[in-house]
Every structure is written in structure tokens, then in C-alpha cells.
Amino acid sequence: MHVTLSAWQALLIAIWVALVESRILGTMTLTMRFSPLMTGMVVGFVMGDIRQAMIVTAAIQLVYMGFVAPGGALPAEPAIGAAIAVPVALLGHMSPQGAIAIAVPVALLGSYLYQFRFFLNTFALKPMDKYAQEANARGLKFAIIVIPTLISFLLFIPLMFIALYFGAPVISGLVAQIEHGTLIHILNSVGGGLAALGIAIIMQVIGKKRLLPFFFLAYFMSVAFAKLKINMTIYAIFGVIFAILYVMLNNKNSETNH
């Protein structure tokens, strides 16, 4: 499928990123910030190729599966990485592994941009002490919610728009010119290694030996059933069934011990 990135498409994606990074919707946007999946779907919808966008985003998600965010701080911004890498991959017809190699450094730069937003907030929130002394609830709400949200939109929308509208086509054009070259091979290799690293991290995060068999069961099921071309919905149903059986057996053992 031939996809393009017009000015309004770049603007919509930029607005989405600003919405997610502003955390204006609370826990929901916080979760979207930690995971690239929703951003990838939005990018696919805007660019008219949801299927390929989700294939690329699913590969990017592997890198960030084991990410831990103590206090909401991330070493990278997966949503920003996906917002740049997915359009580049769609425009340049890149493999998911190549897109990973682009998403990781972009997400790392995005974390610095997110911290810069906090720096700007320190100057904008000076009236908050005055509002607190006056018990001005409306003023506090404006200082705590409205001002940081405006800063987020003013910061992320222009920068993301410039990166998408002017940067993504250049990178995708370069990728198209060296499609079968050594650099693309390197990007694919590095991207595949980062995905494997993400899987290793999530295994470490799980940390419970009794849960690891389910991880290996899912992996070898995907290998054994590859020729059957089973889609992810069926695998998700298998996962739900195994989870229900695990909980039922645990409850039964608990009742027996008591």
C-alpha cells in the first residue's frame, strides 16, 4: 500500500503525541506514554495503513516490554519513538526490525524533551504558592493542570510536526535508496537484537520461576503453529484460557491447604 505524509497528517500525529505527553487524561494517557501500541495505531489510522503500522509497532513494543518507570520516570519515551519510527517505516517500506533501530534513539531523545518540559514548568508554576495561600481552588487548578498542559502542547506540537513533516520523508527516502545495502542490514540486525533484549528484560521482571513455563509455552506454541497461520486473536484466547486455569488451580490448592 502506498502511503504519504501530508502536513495535516503530521499535525494530527503531533497533536496526539502532545496529548499523551501532557498526561491530561491521567492514568489513561500515562499508560499510552509507556506503551507505543496506541500511538502506532493512531499513526496507522492517520496514514491509512493500520495493519502495517501495528506490525511495526508490535516489534517496537518488544523493546519496551520490561521497562519499569519508578515515579513515572522513563529512560525513554516509547510514544515519541513510535510516532517517528512508524511513519518512517511506512514511507520507506522498512522492516519492523529496521524501525526498532530508529525508534530507540528517537525515544531516548524524547526523554530529554520530556525532562525539558518539567524544567519549563518550574517557571510557569510560580503563582501556585500564592493561590495556595489564598485557598484559591480555581487558581490552583489553572496552575497545576492548564499551564503544564499548554506548555506540553506548545513544546511537542511544533517539534513533532517539524520532525515528521520535514524529517520523516528525508529518512524514508534515504532508506529507499540504500534498501539492499549494508546499512539496512545493520539496522535490521541491531533492531532484532534490541527486540530480543526487551524479551529478556521482561523475563527478568517476571522473576517467578513458576510463571516462566507459560512464557516458553507461548513461544514454542507460536513456533509449532506457525504453518497454521494462527492470528494473534486466537493466541490471546489461549492466553486467557491458560490464565483462568492457573487462577482456578491456585485457588483450589489454597482451599486444600486451609
From TrEMBL:
GO terms for biological process: phosphoenolpyruvate-dependent sugar phosphotransferase system. Keywords: Cell membrane, Membrane, Phosphotransferase system, Sugar transport, Transmembrane, Transmembrane helix, Transport. PANTHER family: N-ACETYLGALACTOSAMINE PERMEASE II COMPONENT-RELATED, N-ACETYLGALACTOSAMINE PERMEASE IIC COMPONENT 1. The keyword ATP-binding does not apply. It is found in: Cell membrane. This is PTS Man IIC. Its main location: membrane. The chain crosses the membrane at residues 62-86, 98-120, 140-166, 186-203, 210-226, 232-249. GO terms for cellular component: plasma membrane. It holds the Pfam family EII-Sor. It is a multi-pass membrane protein. The keyword Transmembrane helix applies.
